[in-house]
TrEMBL record:
Its cofactor is FMN. This is Propionate 3-nitronate monooxygenase. It holds the Pfam family NMO. It catalyses: 3 propionate 3-nitronate + 3 O2 + H2O = 3 3-oxopropanoate + 2 nitrate + nitrite + H2O2 + 3 H(+).
C-alpha cells in the first residue's frame, strides 16, 4: 500500500482543523502520504475537501473516519455543572450533551462514491458492508489499534493494514472500548511495545504512530518492523496545517506537560495540560461524543478569546521537539535525520 512512497512517512489524520488538503498535498509532494480527517465534518464538507485535495495532487491520499459508539449511560450532571462554570467565564451557554453518530453512514457513502484510495477508521471497527464496499472499488482499509486484542479483531474485520497507536500519541486514543474506571481508558502501550506485541499476533502491515517527531524516531519504528511511520504532532505547526492559531502558539512554547484526559470529549485523548484538564479530568465520565458536544461552545469561545486554558490542545508527548515551516521541509528534514540515525546505529551494531 505504501511501497510507492519515496519516504514512508504519513501525515496522520487530524480532525478539528489541522488536516487540510494543502497539508495532504504538500506531504504527498515531498514523497510521503497524507490523510484528511473526516471526524466531525459534515458529509458535504468532506466531499469538498476530497475534491480540493484532488485539485492539488494527482497522488493517492487517505480519509479517516470516526466509528460511532453507543450512547453513554453515565451520569453527566456533575460534569455539566463544572462545565457550566467554565462556560460562564466566556459568557456562553454550554452545549447539549447529546449522542450522535457523526454522520458515519453518510460519510462512508462519500468515501465510496469518491473512490478514496485509502480509508482509515478509528474508535472501533468498520461495519462488514463498509469493508466490502471499499474493497469492491479497490480501496484499502486501515484500522487504528492500540493493543493485540484490537489488532486481532481488526484483522478479522478485513483490515488491509493496522495503524498501531502508542500512548505517546496526541489526540484521541483509538481504543475500541473505553474502560470508564481507567483514566487512560484501559491498559496502554508505548509505540515500540505495541508494535512488538501486535507483530506477535498478526502479519498485517503495521503503521506506527505516537510521539514520532524526529527522523531517528521514524527509523526506529521502521527498524522495529513498521511499514510506515504516521506523524501527527510533527505537522501541527506546518505552514499548510489548519491548526487553530492559539494552539500553534501554545505548541511553540515547550513549557507544558501533556496528559490523557476525558474532560473535553468524554473519550481519552492526549493534549497539553491546561486549566480544564487540571480541574476537570479526575471526575470526567466516559461519554463520547456527549461531552464533546457539551464543551464545543466553550472551546470555541476560548479559541476566539485566544485563551488556551479551555481549548482541547491535542498534542503528543514529544510536541516540544516538533518544528514549524513548510511541510515539505519537515519531511525532508525527517528523511535526512532518519538516514543519519540508521548510519549511526549500523556503526554500533
Ligand atoms: C490534533 C490531533 C488530531 C487528531 N485527530 C485524529 C483523527 O481525526 N483521527 C485519527 O485517527 N487520529 C487522530 N489523531 C491521532 C493521530 O492519528 C496519531 O495517532 C497521533 O497524532 C500520533 O502521535 P503524535 O501526535 O505524537 O505524532 C489526532 C492527533 C492530533 C495531535
Amino acid at each position: 500500500m505504501f511501497e510507492s512512497l519515496r519516504f514512508p512517512v504519513i501525515a496522520a489524520p487530524m480532525a478539528g482543523g489541522p488536516s487540510t488538503p494543502e497539508l495532504v498535498a504538500a506531504v504527498t509532494g515531498a514523497g510521503g502520504f497524507g490523510f484528511l480527517g473526516a471526524g466531525m465534518l459534515s458529509p458535504r464538507v468532506l466531499a469538498e475537501k476530497i475534491a480540493k485535495t484532488r485539485e492539488l495532487t494527482d497522488e493517492p491520499f487517505g480519509v479517516n473516519l470516526f466509528v460511532p459508539g453507543k450512547p453513554s449511560d453515565a451520569d453527566l450532571s456533575g460534569h455539566q455543572e463544572r462545565m457550566a462554570a467554565e462556560a460562564s467565564r466566556y459568557e456562553v451557554e454550554p452545549g447539549t450533551p447529546t449522542w450522535d453518530d457523526d454522520s458515519y453512514p453518510a460519510k462512508v457513502d462519500v468515501v465510496v462514491e469518491q473512490r478514496v484510495p485509502v480509508v482509515s477508521f478509528t474508535f472501533g471497527l468498520p461495519r462488514p458492508e463498509d469493508v466490502r464496499r471499499l474493497h469492491e472499488i479497490g480501496s484499502k482499509v486501515i484500522v487504528t489499534v492500540t493493543k493485540p486484542e484490537e489488532a486481532l479483531e481488526a484483522e478479522k474485520a478485513g483490515a488491509d493494514a493496522l495503524a498501531v497507536q502508542g500512548f505517546e500519541a496526541g489526540g484521541h486514543r483509538g481504543i475500541f472500548k473505553d474502560d470508564p474506571d481507567s483514566p487512560t481508558g484501559g491498559e496502554i502501550y508505548g509505540v515500540l511495545a505495541a508494535l512488538r506485541l501486535i507483530k506477535g499476533v498478526t502479519e498485517l502491515p503495521l503503521i506506527a504512530a505516537g510521539g514520532l517527531v524526529h527522523g531517528a524516531d521514524v527509523a526506529a519504528v521502521l527498524a522495529a518492523g513498521a511499514v510506515a511511520a504516521q506523524l501527527g504532532t510533527a505537522f501541527l505547526r506546518a505552514d499548510e496545517a489548519g491548526t487553530q492559531p492559539t494552539q500553534v502558539k501554545a505548541l511553540a512554547v515547550a513549557d507544558r506537560k501533556t496528559d490523557i484526559t476525558r474532560a473535553f470529549s468524554g473519550r481519552p485523548a492526549r493534549g497539553l495540560v491546561n486549566r480544564v484538564m487540571t480541574e476537570l479530568s479526575a471526575q470526567a465520565p466516559s461519554a463520547y461524543p456527549e461531552l464533546n458536544n457539551l464543551s464545543k461552545p466553550i472551546r470555541a469561545a476560548a479559541a476566539k478569546a485566544d485563551d488556551p486554558e479551555a481549548m482541547s490542545l491535542w498534542a503528543g508527548q514529544t510536541y516540544s521537539a516538533a518544528t514549524d515551516g513548510p511541510a515539505a521541509e519537515i519531511v525532508a528534514r525527517l528523511r535526512d535525520e532518519a538516514r543519519a540515525a540508521v548510519d549511526r546505529a549500523a556503526k554500533l551494531i
